[in-house]
Amino acid sequence: MDFLLSLLIAGASVGSVYALVAVGLNFTFWTTRTLNFGQGAVMMICAIATAMLASRGMGLWSSALVAITIVAGVGVMVERLAVRPALKAAGSLGWVISTLGFGILLQGIAAKLFGSQALPFPELLFRASDVVSVGGQPLSLQYAAIFVVSVTIIGALELLMRRTVMGSAVRAVAQDAELGEVQGLPVKWIVSGSFVASSVLAGVAGILVAQIGGTIDPAFGFELVLFGFVAAVVGGMGSSAGALVGGIGVGILSKLVGGYVSTAAEHGIAFAVLVLMLAMRPQGLFGRAEVMKA
Q1: CA distances from 123 to 128, 188, 193, 212 (A)
Q2: DSSP at 123
Q3: Cα–Cα distance, 75 to 198 (Å, whole number)
Q4: What are phi and psi of 258, to 5 degrees?
Q5: Which pLDDT score is estimated for 19?
């Protein structure tokens, strides 16, 4: 029973980070109908920058804020250099290759600058040994904090989207960008802002997951963006609630399979769920099928 509970807690915590990545993917999907498949490299850059700045004497929270600012700039670069040119060709899926290529480029630069060896990541929230007893069962404060931070950020973003002028502008662009431009909305700035928000969320997710593993390397983040993509599809592209449910569900399922079957099967079960969802309900649990009018 204790083992099952530990797997459920770990799965929910990691799954909430998958949900955070999924919400980041949703931001760019809303405004451009594209996904930044280079998000894994963004997570890696944010985590490595945090660790390097902290190792040079900067405060942990200051290091994290500077690193998040850096990846916000990376988000602008991705939109301007990898996505915007690809979207000029109607119906083109060139953004898939360009965002992947941009991510690989960032990984190569990181490997050149910092080496390919794993770097230690500082304990930002709690130490791995910090636990609290809940109902007689030990609960890792690190896992609990990661879950609370992720869910709080997703909830705050959902309120931002529904209750603010900025959120209304993003939703208007998502509905019809051309009409929004006619109405005077700064569509290009909103699109760029969506990539900034997506990169910031990816950066936060990278920092949170690095807390669990304790180390980072240039390949860090690739698996996270894959799980985040699965969570987004399962929950329904464009749905924050779906991203949260999908992320936690995928996280728990993968940890259960890893604990009772094999850790090597964790990735396989996630993609099995993805294939099953695409076959049975392509729009996801919370998504709605789009109707195209001729």
Answers
A1: 8, 38, 30, 9
A2: -
A3: 7
A4: -65, -35
A5: 92
Other Cβ atoms closer than 10 A to 289? 8
Residue at 264 is within a domain: no
Closest CA relative to residue 46, chosen from 212, 213, 209:
209
> Is residue 107 a contact partner of residue 44, using CB atoms and an 8 Å limit?
yes
Q: Evaluate whether 229 touches 246 at the Cβ level (below 8 Å).
A: no
- C-alpha closest to that of 121 among 213, 18, 10: 213
Residue 32 domain boundaries:
14-219
* CB neighbours of residue 171 within 10 Å: 14
Q: Which residues contact 18 (CB under 8 A, 6 or more apart)?
A: 224, 227, 228, 230, 231, 246, 247, 248, 250, 251
Contact, 97 vs 213, CB < 8 A?
no
Residue 33 maps to a domain = yes
Q: What is the pTM of this model?
A: 0.89
Q: In this structure, is residue 265 part of a structural domain?
A: no
Residue 39 corresponds to which tokens in the numbers above? 């998000």
Report residue 105 CA to chain centroid gap.
19
Does some domain include residue 45? yes
- Please write the tens of the pLDDT for every residue from 259-288: 888 777 777 887 888 888 888 888 888 766
Summarize pLDDT for 200-259 with one digit per residue, the tens: 999 999 998 888 878 888 888 888 888 899 999 988 888 888 899 999 999 999 888 888
The rounded distance, in Å, linking the Cα atoms of 223 and 6 is: 22
In 3D space, the residue among 21, 27, 49, 292 whose CA is nearest the CA of residue 173 turns out to be 27
Number of domains in the chain: 1
What is the tens place of the pLDDT at every residue in 38-64?
A: 898 999 999 999 999 998 888 888 999
